Amino acid sequence: NLRGAVLDAQTVPAARGTRLAIENKAGEIVIHAWEKDAVRVQARHSSRAKINVRTDANVINVDAVTDRGPTGSIDYDISAPAWMPIKVEGQYDYISVEGVQGEISVETVRGDIVLKNVGSAIAKSIEGAIEVDGARGKLTLSSVNEEIKVTGASAEVVADTTNGEVTLTRMEGNGVEVATVNGDIVFEGRLADRGRYSFTNHNGDIVLLVPQTSNATFNVRAYSGEFSTALPVKGPDSSQVRRGRRVSYTLGNGSAEVELESFGGDIKLRRPGSARTRRDQ
Question: Does the predicted TM-score (pTM) go above 0.85?
Answer without folding.
Answer: yes
